[in-house]
Amino acid sequence: MTKNSRDNDVAFIQALAELLNQNELTELSVVREYGEDDSLEVRVVKQATVVQAAPVTYAAPAAAPAPAASAAAAAPTAPAADAADPSSHPGAVPSPMVGTAYMAAEPGADPFVTIGAQVKEGQTLMIVEAMKTMNHIPAPKSGTVKRILVEDGTPVEFGTTLMIVE
Q: Which residues contact 95 (CB under 8 A, 6 or more apart)?
């Protein structure tokens, strides 16, 4: 490897790191081909501990109305247990990726689902955008949307519980 190509690789990696920061990404992976048997594979990852705490913040506002609803319900202990950890609920729909959650196909459009809506298995519940790609999140089973735990346009991490379908 020549010094010039090494300098070019370092500049390329620095440009990727800047791109990562400018676009608020957490990970970027690129393969740069130089020839048949020569390539450079780069994976730049930014640890975002503040963003990882965000799902707890988004879940808390949605959990606040649950005690009022459970007071009117016949069995208040079950909703209270779900409010503590929605990811343990059997109807939890987790985010399959890091991205931004959108409730509708475009700004101003009706949301895909609302609380109380009946959904069929495979029906689109919401979109998670990752790197300008819109990923439809399907219902894992047929049922009723009981809770929506994220707000439109909020960032989500892998595994964040997006909603509850029972």
A: 101, 128, 137, 156, 157, 158, 159, 160, 161, 162
